Amino acid sequence: MSNLLESRITLSCKAALWALRMAASLTVSTILILTSIGRHCFLILLLAWSAAAVGDELRYTVSGVDDALRQNVLGHIETLQLGRQARLAEKDYAEVIANTSRRAREALRPFGYYRPDVSARIERKSESEVVLSLAIKPGPPMIVAAAHIQVIGDGVNVKELQEWQKDWPLQSGSRLNQSKWEEAKQHAIEIANTWGFRAAKFTEHAIELDLVENRATLRLTFDTGPQYMFGDIDFGEHMLKPGIVEFIPRFQKGEPFRERLLEKFRVDLWKTGYFTNIDVVEVDQPDESPPEVDLKISLETSHKNSYQGSVGMGTDTGVRVQAQWSRHPMSRNGDRVDVGVGWQEADDEFSLKSNYRLPRISRAREYWTAEIYAKYENLDLEFKRRPEDEEFVNIANGSVTELNMRAGRLKIRNLKEGNRQLFDTLFVQFLNSTREYNPVFTVPPELSNPEFDRLLKGTDNATSIGVDVNLVDVRGKGFDTVGRRDHAWLFSSVMSIGSDMNFTQAFIGTRRIYRKGERWKFLLRAELGYTDATVDKFDFVFNNQSVNLSVTRLPNFYRFKAGGSNSVRGYGFESLSNNDVGSNHIATASAEAEMKVLEKWSVAAFADIGNAFNEWSDPNLYRGVGFGVRWYSIAGPISVDFAKALDLTGKPWRIHFTIGVSLL
Nearest 5°: CA angle at 64, between 62 and 70? Predict the structure, then answer.
């Protein structure tokens, strides 16, 4: 071992002495001093010092091509960088130029240039800087003479693959671009995988070049292979009873595999709130007939309580504060409870809401639900001198306190192969609503009657039976969010089951977002509501002016109101209704076009129309137009709208500020 070590040191020392002789800046006396201290270690250190001292920096310049070609050329030739511990001698110039020129030609080929003229020269700018300059003439590009693109296999009728084939980017007459070639191939693989063709491959992929005529013939055959099916799902060990998580998937064994459904499955598992960690592993079974994808699920629950809180501000609500406590699951039965409290500056509104949900183990995607909602808010009884006025005249100050209890059965139905879900709830609901108004004027004798007294003070009890339906199909995030949400309900409140009055209400509303290209999207909204409740009308004189009041007997909880950021913009929040206290009916519509201007910024233009009213013969629809700015921040989309009310005196402008996707 000692002989081997001594031999290695001898070789190292010889190399060090050679480097020492090459370092002209060292004197003989310096060498003698170093060797007298200990030649073995110091000669090695001296070698590293001398190499660093004479290192060259090799810099490149490229001319004659556009930025895309220049960057690709630099990406290829910069691998020849010498570094700080090497010196480029003139005798090596020819070899470096040859290697650099060869790599530059290779860098041009993916862009269709196979016969470029490349000239290079090396110039020493200083003791430590060397510049290698490349002058490139790309020459004539390689032109696609023919493209033979075909799809075979079980997925030949998949619409997206047919469109991929139709929109093939390298058609006859275009310049050959191998980057587009590879991107298009990868896109086909992604489409196939999305539709369950997990064994898809290219059985033929060739680029035939005619270097004399500068023509290329493309041959590409994409074999999708068989379509995979969903196989077995192993949920592993978890704390819930059997029959709860098993009903969460929107697919069943033997149905065609879809990447989108698998992603929705992950989201649905997370939205239950049962689990703190979710891991879904896909296991291909290609030997099955048909082939399958088994899923192995790992689910963990480390806590049951969660807390949320938020503080915000908006033009509709003013300052608002919210807090929520959730416990899920409460037991092995998969039940959960959510309790939230909130306050907002508008109308000094306080609210308390609690929801309970229990899965029906014997019924797939069915739940027993219960909800308690309590709210207190300050409301005023107001009127307008003229319909076109913006300001109301206050005739009474008051408050409304409501307690609403609802129990029902929720059924989740999968539609459109699981891409959409329909939530329908059959419910029984009880409402207790108390109002108390104090007039700001002396009540004239003609208004001293039970109907007017009931308007100012009273309690309403309403027990109703009905159905509530939500259809949800939302995809993407930020500017890319598209889809729809439809909401409808129908219920009746009758005195025979404990109500103080008989009435029926029906409502249907929709919000939809469509994309057009990469920069445009369109939002459409509409809602229509009807109630057959009794309306009281009062005529009297207030401050020497004739006043006409039209007030529904419908409890405040069920009254319709329009106006604000998510309704008819240009008008105050919930200011469009009879006497600013709500109405029996509503009709609104909105159309908005949004254009993306930067990565996270867009601008929009919109037109709104609508009103809440008591008489179908006189809906008096209000119109608003405007424009806005959207910022898709990390905290969610933020919108600022500048809206003009077209049917108010002076046609004022109003600013609306909102946070959140209006579709959701």
Answer: 45
